[in-house]
């Protein structure tokens, strides 16, 4: 299988690294590996599956408004369809919808209720 390693990090652990094939999403790979992640619509219109990109394993990142180096989901992921539930600012801050996102590089992604709470409500609900 060709693909990328994605480490799913939780504040309260445990962290899991999964291999995501080129033709699957992070959510699909997690389910294949027996890793439970929340999801609902599987279309990118809710934010149930949201994660936050922590780092690209190849060290690439861009500066945010404060000058701090921050990875961006636009660098690390491609989407099967536009992530309608995320604003441009949320995407720039590294938030990613795992149900429709496929990694373009090895990376680390924070998952769990804290990330979901940071984003707030879906604009579609």
TrEMBL record:
Residues 59-84 are annotated as: Disordered. Keywords: 2Fe-2S, Electron transport, Iron, Iron-sulfur, Metal-binding, Transport. It comes from the Archaea. One of its GO terms (molecular function) is metal ion binding. It holds the Pfam family Fer2. The keyword Ion transport does not apply. PROSITE patterns: 2FE2S_FER_2. Gene3D superfamilies: 3.10.20.30. Residues 4-115 form the 2Fe-2S ferredoxin-type domain. Its cofactor is [2Fe-2S] cluster. The keyword Transport applies. Belongs to the 2Fe2S plant-type ferredoxin family. PANTHER family: FERREDOXIN (PTHR43112), FERREDOXIN-2, CHLOROPLASTIC (PTHR43112:SF3). This is 2Fe-2S iron-sulfur cluster-binding protein. It comes from Haloarchaeobius amylolyticus.
């Amino acid at each position: 299988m060709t693909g990328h390693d994605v480490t799913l990090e939780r504040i309260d652990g445990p962290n899991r690294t999964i291999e995501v094939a080129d033709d699957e999403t992070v959510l699909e790979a997690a389910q294949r590996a027996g890793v439970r992640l929340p999801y609902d619509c599987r279309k990118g219109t809710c934010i149930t599956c949201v994660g936050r990109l922590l780092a690209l394993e190849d060290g690439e990142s861009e500066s945010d408004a404060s000058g701090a180096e921050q990875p961006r989901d636009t660098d690390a992921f491609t989407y099967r369809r536009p992530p309608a539930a995320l604003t441009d600012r949320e995407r720039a801050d590294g938030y990613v919808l795992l149900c429709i996102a496929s990694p373009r590089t090895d990376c680390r992604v924070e998952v769990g209720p804290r990330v979901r709470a940071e984003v707030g409500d879906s604009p579609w609900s």
